Fold this sequence. Notes:
Elements: E1 3-11, H1 13-42, H2 47-52, E2 55-57, E3 69-77, E4 82-84, E5 88-91, E6 93-116, E7 120-134, E8 159-162, E9 165-168, E10 171-174, E11 184-185, H3 196-199, E12 201-203, E13 206-209, E14 222-230, E15 234-242, E16 245-247, E17 249-251, E18 255-257, E19 259-262, H4 265-298, H5 300-306, H6 310-342, H7 345-371
Amino acid sequence: MVDSFVETETTGFLGNMGKSIMAVPIGILLFFLSFVVFWKTEGRTDWSKVAKSSVEVPAATASGQDGNFVSITGPLTATENLGDPEFLAPGDWIKLYRSPQMYAWVETVKSDSKKKVGGKTKTTKTYTYDTKWTTSPKSASDFKVTAGHENPAMTISSQEFVVATANVGAWSFAAGDASLPSGDDLSLSTVQLAGKGATAKKIGDEVFMGKGTPDVPTVGDIKVSWSALPTGGTVTLFGQASGGTVGAYMHNDEDRLLRAVKGNRGEAIATLKGEFKAMGWVGRVIGFLMMWIGMTMVFAPLHGIMDIIPFMGSVSRGLVGCVTFPVALILSAITILISMLLHSIVAMVVITLLLGGLGFFAWKKKQAEAGA
Length: 372
């Protein structure tokens, strides 16, 4: 059942100006933090390059290479079985992730603001309440309208289970300390249920518990699904060898690597390279947006004054946005380039040599002119 509640609020000119003035220091902070984001993004470790320097060792025999940074390709296995103590009997998995959902009340807020002559703002908020499946049900106290929208406490939590020790061929490593491949949705067709799962209803690949039915659930009903990383898949393990085990490899005494990646060594390195590029673009986009939004927020008091005539306020926002966009784009590109150069030793050496050469050339030219 869906119901809604509408709330209307009017903010005067002085109230809007106060909010506009408060936006200025926030905008300045965002602007300067964008440089930190660019610097951190370009200074990340490219693990694909580091991985190429690893010593490729056979998986069949776990010996030698003590202290070396190694890569081992082979089947991912474990000597112990893994299960979910509350729901699933142990099986051939390296990692399990439990994902519960509750049928609960969910609040959706839609806000619509309109500028009025004189610098006022009329804001209409519509609070809509509907029952849906959600992984994070809220307490009624968090809702605008609490009556009739009570959710019971979530009695089952999401949880990850990992075997204590895993193996790649004959080499072992602490699975809980390693970064492992993500799992796939677990099919319950061949899985033995245990504990609460044995008394619950199995509907497809989910376990259902509650007073209602899967087709007509009631508030408080819960369904649980899992993702799993099974044994037997081919992975490449990167880490530091020590006595037949593989531990974390420290790069430059600050970055730590103990990771199993799906596929052979070449495929694993390609995966690491793809992740590095993707996260690089994510960081650059975030940095640009922080810079652009921060620059526009500095002009918020101007917009507040222009809002006395709503049309003029809209025009000022559009003009400021159009002007600051290319400025932020160019400044972001320059910052990214400088960050890339400063984080690259080779580039810094080349720049130093070029500057030194230019300086020497200028000095020789000045000497020649003085001699003439």
